Amino acid sequence: MKNCWIVLLLIFINFHAEAQKAEPVPTYAKAQNDMSWYQQQIKAWKQVIQNQPKDAEAWMHYYNAKRILVNHDTNDHRSFTEKDAEMNALVDDMEKSLPNSYEVNFCRWQLGGNDLSKLPYLQKAMSIDSSRSEHISYMINIGEMERNRAQRDAFSLKSMNKGMISSGMLYYNFNTLAGLEQHAILLTAGDNDTYPAWALQAKGIRKDVHVLNVFLLQKKEYRKKVFEELGLPFEEAKEKVSNENIVELISHNKFHWPVYVALTTAGCEVYTQQIEERLYLCGLVYRYDTTSFDHLAVLKRNFEKLYALDYLDKVFYPEISTELVERINTNYIIPMFKLYEHYRDSGDLQHQLWMKEKIILLAKGLDDPDTILKKLD
Asked: Is 330 helix (H, G, I), strand (E, B) or coil?
């Protein structure tokens, strides 16, 4: 009996050790795990830091896990002020162990949320180690906010050369850009529908398109510069443009450039819920238009002639964000199903089967694929 208890104890110890194993914590834009995993990693990396307080890599993984949990845990109902105080206290502790380090200065900048008054921290980090990759996306942001296209392009190319951008995300964004009219304004909402698009433009692809991230547009100075370029009124008294009217407002640009909203903004209904009747599905985007037009013809053109779709079932390059690519690719299902019904009703069996095969393939990325598959003939 005594030996049995020893065996059980060893099993428990091994299981506990495995559960607390410290693992690299990638950015949330590259990979997303359950919140419980980040809680586990916080404990694991904290233990590493206690044993090795000068371990800079351990500090960064600890910080990344904590930051992701603070920003994405829906069960954490604390105020922004409370969360911000916790993260700044963490960096204060980091600074005691790693004074004047790249990590401390980068984290100070990052917690500022693209606040250009905090730029000296980022500059200090880069002066310490310019070969690091953590600052690259922020230098892209700064280039965009300062309307310095050369800087945005240079750091976008660096991100590609360092393998920071998923090949699947590049294909997806290529298709998004390919289906737009000349000089289109495209509103995006996240990392994976913005940075890859800018990187493609840095490579010379659809440089005429104006890719605007709705969250960056909340930055007053940046918004002022963009509005001036578009010939839109900017009222100093208004600190923030209402999210509800941003699409409509930009559509009044002096050049009459068409405005599109990426399907990836689906989680940001506040930007579209009041204008749904003026949004027309054209592929991976909705086009904002006050007059009706034949969007089905545009949808067919994009899928039949412009979109590169082979990557959906033929992976040519290594993928760094498999799960996120599968998730973003489910956006194809909405326009594909629209085309599937059109081909079925028009008797185009060849194209109907083509769409059906793609929908079945992409449905694997859904939480409930049966809901879609049951609608297919």
From this structure: helix
Query: Which residue type is seen at 183?
Result: H
Task: Count Cβ neighbours within 10 Å for each residue of 264-300 and write b for 16 or more, e otherwise.
Answer: bbeebeebbeebeebbbbbbbbbbbbeeeeebeebbb
Tokens read off for 187: 């509103």
Tens-digit pLDDT profile for residues 52-78 = 999 999 999 999 999 999 999 999 999
In angstroms, the first-to-last Cα distance of the chain is 62
Report residue 377 as tokens.
Answer: 């003939």
* SS3 readout for 27-70: CCCCCCCCHHHHHHHHHHHHHHHHHCCCCHHHHHHHHHHHHHHH
Rounded CA-CA distance 267/90 in Å is 30
185 membership: H or E segment, kind and range: strand 185-188
The Cα 11–Cα 343 span in angstroms is 59
Structure tokens at 14: 């091994």
Contact 187/212 with Cβ under 8 angstroms?
A: yes
Pick out the chain residues at pLDDT < 50. Answer: 1-2, 6-18, 237
Instruction: Render pLDDT for 73-107 as a digit per residue (tens, 0 to 9).
Output: 999 999 999 999 999 999 999 999 999 999 999 99
